[in-house]
From TrEMBL:
Pathway: Amino-acid biosynthesis; L-methionine biosynthesis via de novo pathway; L-homocysteine from L-cystathionine: step 1/1. Its cofactor is pyridoxal 5'-phosphate. Belongs to the trans-sulfuration enzymes family. SUPFAM superfamilies: PLP-dependent transferases. Gene3D superfamilies: Aspartate Aminotransferase, domain 1, Type I PLP-dependent aspartate aminotransferase-like (Major domain). This is Cystathionine beta-lyase. The keyword Lyase applies. Transmembrane segments: none annotated. It catalyses: L,L-cystathionine + H2O = L-homocysteine + pyruvate + NH4(+); an S-substituted L-cysteine + H2O = a thiol + pyruvate + NH4(+). Keywords: Lyase, Pyridoxal phosphate. InterPro entries: Cys/Met-Metab_PyrdxlP-dep_enz, Cys_b_lyase_bac, Cys_met_metab_PP, PyrdxlP-dep_Trfase, PyrdxlP-dep_Trfase_major, PyrdxlP-dep_Trfase_small.
Amino acid sequence: MEAKCLKKINDRTLLTHAAVNPSEHHGFINPAIFRGSTVAFPNVAALAEGRQPYRYGRWDNPTSTALCEAISTLEGATGTVLCPSGLTACTTAILAICGAGDHLLVPDSVYGPVRYFCATVARRMDIETTYYDPRDGAGIANLFQPNTRAVFLESPGSGTFEIQDVPTITAVAHECDICVLMDNSWATPLFLKPLELGVDISIMAATKYIGGHSDVMLGTIACAPRAWEQVSDMHFQLGQFVGPDDVTLVLRGLRTLDVRLQRHQESALTIARWLEQHPEVSRVFYPALPSHPGHALWQRDFRGASGLLSFVTRSSSSNAVAAMIDGLKLFTIGYSWGGFESLALPVDPRSMRTATQWTETGHLIRLHIGLEDVDDLMADLKEGFNRLRNISDY
Ligand SMILES: *Cc1c(COP(=O)(O)O)cnc(C)c1O
């Protein structure tokens, strides 16, 4: 309830005050970790009428209610549900909206495992997927069919960072009563608020920046009024549940999201500008760079850029790229991102594109810029480029 009065407050204040209700927790700032299945009812009448706030562990508990309330406030949502991973948040949202015979539009640069879900489970359920060029704006309407039920967005795109024209796509979709879902893991609601741009369902891998410490996996689905009932029903029917320890870690991460994102942004921009000037680099994909093809859209809709970017090396051998990455001391090789640490990962978009063509000849390397000192990170990369050049020369 209190969260509602916070809606007009700056996000920074909101992050520290949303769903903080000490009077409900014996004065302790944070909610307790409520572990449990059975919730006791005082008598049969109370059971029959279901008249108490918590009735069964899987449905709700004070720990998860606090996180849902905080996310809803931040997203400007009617309600939020929690899923055990970012991927289950994407798939649950799709299943909530699409059924047998429906058609779904998905950007070509979507997170790979969502694509896999569409090709397997969704196809088996007779949900047909068409991939579209993420750079399409109003042109996406050309792909609408009478049975198109939903448009999925992810901006920037995974690995290749295409920026989508979110308000234009939502406008043309809504004209045809098509639901718009958006994966907003990269920006978080601090840097982009999908629901304000007309999106019906805002999805996040809270595993990434919200958790922020690479120690937890969780997904959130925040809904505008018109999608809330369908999403909460599907979530309930599938029996989705996240344990209270994980919820607590994510709630804790949320409190420091603003300061962490500011540092990720500052360092990523410094490194992106430096990479752009580097002779071993042919292209840098980071929407905050004026050279990025989606920069104007990014500037119009986003309030910031986070710490994930990619770049293409000048033509070089796979061995040279491996030597560059293997020798990095401060960048870890691994999936995911959004934690405090820097990461480096070679990516091949070719295997995951059907509506667009990846024509770069160099190697694509994705970097997550962590919270380390930015000069230390650049020195590490600089040595990496030396290894790349030395091997390429032979
Ligand atoms: C990582 C990621 C996910 C999946 O999150 P998990 O918690 O790893 O399941 C979904 N979407 C995007 C854009 C991601 O980067």
